[in-house]
Specification:
With 632 residues, the protein is of the alpha/beta class. The chain has 4 domains: 118 residues, Glycogen Phosphorylase B (Rossmann fold); 153 residues, Rossmann fold, CATH 3.40.50.2000; 247 residues, Spore Coat Polysaccharide Biosynthesis Protein SpsA, Chain A; 50 residues. 40% of the residues lie in helices and 17% in strands. The protein has 21 helices and 20 strands. Strand 10, helix 9 and strand 11 form a beta-alpha-beta unit. The longest helix is centred in the last third of the chain and has 36 residues. The relative contact order is 0.09.
Length: 632
């Protein structure tokens, strides 16, 4: 088994640096090959069986099964749409608590996404039990304080205790005068060795971790080292380790907590035999249930089941038993090195029955020889479509050549992941009422390359999960496209005579096709990220730089093509865009009326408390008592 361990952070003091090294060491013990990575390029070069993504600060970055580590409380990120989308993009989930598992269940409840959840923790490699020396025990804590001065008052109180040793990022512990002892190498070994020498480790959790029942690294590294653990109350620790660790009540003030900790330290020193018995029991529980070797081995059956379900491996079906998918590719503006990357991504599809329609609008040196290299894998149809000045002409030439059950588009500089076609065809086969299935896509900014230079994936700072949204008709009618052309598969039966007519557009041809399809069918979103949309800042290689006048002109053409045509009851391009134009004005008007109402209410309140108003109310009261008319 070959795995990539993806740490999105470059800071050497983050917990993920230590976790990555621990997983690496555990995998090595199992005889696996493990590669620690940061970027999509490193993942691609590693060519792993699967990727373990250590933090949802990063989405799935490459076309390999990617399992996201879900050991942070959802309350930390569930209000940030970007991070929730990152979670969606993973293929499976390594979960550290039942509440987090339930959170994922609700998040994915209304999706068509196959996935698994498997138990996994911020644990340690298997260790041999080494009894600590408890003649003069020290209390060790290690942390980076990434979220600010966590437990600041408690550690300031512990700073004056003779037994306290604190390690970690020096920037996180500037408030300590005595207890801070420096940083430790995050090599998967040094932390455990230091804990064993200290004899006792401190394990604390924020309230969010307790509510999510998510344990931190501290408990695992303490018991793996053989040290005695002093822990704040935590549901997981109580259930997993019971009375083999010591507990404090974290609810009283800091001085009371320090008193509890000091009492435990005194007890350990006075009762070393009992303390060692506890540490041995805790270590045995760790070894039997929570070592990283065990967790990795337990993950293997989930992995094998998932790669079959999600099409990461070919099903074994003969191509003749599968409906064919033809992918249209327009060529003429880029060299064969770039085209090869796109063709490779088609050839590597686990869905076997794929074919290519190459629409050539300009000579490409070496194109014929390149296409010949792929004919044994898939049928390739080459169509000549001389340039007309309209980008739509070549796309519609491809559409008119489609004779398969399904069609798709792949620009010559983009790629699709190996299970892309499998995923989308499976969706359409399970939902015969839908005509288009689409995936999320990674937006990739790659360097401007010299001709005939092989294109490769760039660093993570230029890879974003930019396209990942359930279907939203209003967004398309506002020309805010969230479905890149290489991210969908459609039924060819939708290509009626009207749709097959070239709209003669210089840009926006991909949006025009999507709008045609919107009028004819229902769209399904896969909740997977299986496509990569490449982008460059080279003005000669990017239609975005064609100039604002051109885009504005073609946008107006697109409005006329679909003039007042309804895509849903009451929804046309004109009505939706008019509402968007009117919305700021109406919102400003509402604010103005709200301000007027508030001013009127203030005036009335002032009047009702004035002397005149009180006299007036009294006079009316007297008139009612005398049964005199009060009107007029």
């Amino acid at each position: 088994m070959r795995i990539a361990i993806q740490n999105p952070f470059v800071d050497p003091f983050v917990a993920e640096a230590e976790l990555s090294r621990r997983i690496y060491l555990a995998a090595k013990t199992l005889g696996w090959e493990a590669i620690e990575v940061h970027t999509s390029e490193q993942i691609r070069l590693a060519n792993p069986d699967f990727v373990i993504a250590l933090h949802n600060n990063s989405p799935k970055l490459a076309g390999y099964p990617t399992y996201g580590c879900m050991w942070n409380p959802p309350s930390f990120f569930e209000g940030t749409e970007k991070f929730v989308k990152h979670v969606f993009s993973y293929d499976g989930y390594l979960v550290s608590s039942k509440p987090i598992d339930r959170w994922l269940f609700h998040l994915l409840y209304n999706t068509n996404k196959p996935y698994f959840t498997a138990p996994f923790y911020t644990s340690c490699p298997q260790t041999q039990y080494q009894p600590p020396h408890l003649e003069n025990p020290r209390l060790m804590y290690i942390g980076s304080n990434w979220d600010g001065l966590r437990f600041q008052s408690l550690f300031e109180a512990l700073d004056h205790q003779p037994y306290m040793d604190v390690y970690g990022n020096p920037n996180g512990w500037t408030h300590l005068q005595h207890a801070y002892k420096g940083s430790l190498p995050y090599d998967g070994i040094s932390v455990l060795e230091t804990l064993n020498r200290a004899g006792v480790g401190l394990c604390l959790h924020r309230e969010e971790h307790c509510q999510a029942e998510a344990p931190s690294m501290r408990i695992f590294e303490i018991v793996a080292s053989g040290a005695i653990a002093i822990c704040g109350e935590h549901p997981f620790i109580r259930q997993a380790f019971g009375d083999s660790v010591l507990y404090i009540d974290p609810t009283p003030n800091e001085q009371e907590q320090v008193k509890q900790i000091s009492q435990h330290m005194a007890w350990i020193q006075q009762n070393p035999a009992q303390a060692l018995e506890m540490s041995a029991t805790a270590h045995q529980l760790f070894s039997e249930q929570y070592s990283l070797e065990k967790l990795l081995l337990d993950l293997v059956p989930y992995h094998h089941d998932l790669i079959s379900k999600k099409g990461f491996v070919a099903s074994g079906d003969r191509p003749s038993l599968q409906p064919q998918v033809q992918l249209m590719m327009r060529v003429g503006g880029r060299d064969v090195a770039t085209i090869r990357r796109a063709l490779d991504s088609i050839a590597h599809q686990t869905y076997q029955n794929v074919a290519v329609i190459v629409v050539q609008y300009q000579d490409v040196v070496g194109l014929e020889q390149l296409l010949n290299q792929y004919t044994a894998r898939m049928p390739i149809k080459l169509i000549q479509s001389p340039p007309t000045g309209f980008r739509s002409t070549q796309l519609w030439a491809g559409l008119n050549a489609v004779d398969s059950e399904y069609f798709a588009i792949l620009d010559d500089d983009d790629v699709i992941h190996p299970n892309h076609i499998h995923t989308l065809v499976s969706l359409l086969q399970h939902h015969p009422d839908a005509g288009v299935a689409y995936s999320g896509a990674l937006w990739v900014l790659e360097p401007n390359l010299e001709p005939n230079t092989t294109a490769t994936a760039p660093s993570p700072s230029t890879v974003e999960l930019a396209y990942f949204s359930p279907f939203n008709l209003d967004e398309l009618l506002k020309f805010r496209n969230f479905i890149p052309s290489n991210s969908y598969v459609a039924r060819s039966a939708l290509l009626d005579p009207v749709l097959k007519r070239d709209p003669e557009l210089k840009v926006f041809e991909d949006v025009c096709l999507l709008l045609h399809l919107c009028k004819r069918t229902r769209f399904l979103f896969s909740y997977e990220a299986t496509a990569e949309f490449y982008w460059r800042t080279n003005e000669q290689d990017n239609s975005t730089f064609s100039g604002k006048p051109l885009w504005s002109h073609e946008m107006s053409r697109l409005k006329f093509i679909f003039w007042r045509q309804e895509f849903a009851p009451g929804k046309s391009i004109q009505t939706v865009q008019q509402i968007e134009i009117e919305y700021p004005r109406l919102r400003a008007k509402v604010k103005e009326l709200q301000a007027q109402l508030q001013a009127a209410e203030t005036t009335i309140e002032a009047m009702e408390t004035s002397k005149f108003w009180r006299l007036r109310k009294g006079w009316f009261k007297v008139k009612r008592m005398l049964k005199l008319p009060v009107n007029g």
